[in-house]
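Field reference: sequence -> structure
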Amino acid sequence: MDNNVFKGKWKQIKGETQKQWGKLTNDDIDVIDGEREKLIGKLQERYGYAKDRAEQEYTDWSNKHNSTTV
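Structure field:
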């Protein structure tokens, strides 16, 4: 998902983000505020993922999310 689209749809998809990654707190969701890089950073922090793994998690989730909303 394009970063601008992600930011624009954040209020709609933040609940789905928290369902996908249950270790993200409400505070994490507020801090992320629709910014892809912040989400990736929080995935690294909460799950101990390397940056490549966190980016892949985001990409896989984003592709899945895009295919269900189109």
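Note: The chain has a mean pLDDT of 89.
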